[in-house]
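Lab channel / #folding
Pinned by the channel admin:
"Please post every new chain as: sequence first, then the structure tokens as a reply. Keep commentary short and put observations after the output so the thread stays searchable."

First post following the new format, from NK:
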Amino acid sequence: MKIKFVMVAGLSALLAACASTPPTTDTNTGPTEPPRTTRTDTPPANPGPVPGTTEHFVATAGDRVFYDLDRSTLTAAGRETLRRQADWLNAYPGVTVMIAGNCDERGTREYNLALGARRANAARDYLVSLGVSPSRIQTVSYGKERPTCRESSERCWSLNRNATTMITGGATG
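Reply from TO:
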């Protein structure tokens, strides 16, 4: 019985030794091939909006400038946004836009329509001064009729005081 036990233990040790592979040392000091990758049919990561599209315009230039209360003069931030818009529009000369002037809910309908028109025209005039052809730009005033935010708070009012540039023709996609 002792012999069977020793034989079983020896056989187990032999099988265990055969199951593992000894570590190999690479003695090749020459250049190695890069590891091969297998092709997968997964799409690439989202590269962002397609150039020349409305989404590209919004992502790279921004589509709106904001105004102070009862003002139609451009802020420094507004001028910077319009510079980006002009660069984009000059890169895509077939694109036409409409600039919509908007106001917050305070004030009369007539007053806000006039203020919205002044805001849209201020943005238009600045784009024209940066080389965008005036024939490519239309303006409209919505006054307080199309608010972005509907709460009666300073935060919402400041969001609603804007001029929004919308692509109306010539964009791809």
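NK: The first strand starts at residue 64 and ends at 66.
TO: also worth noting, The chain has five helices and four strands.
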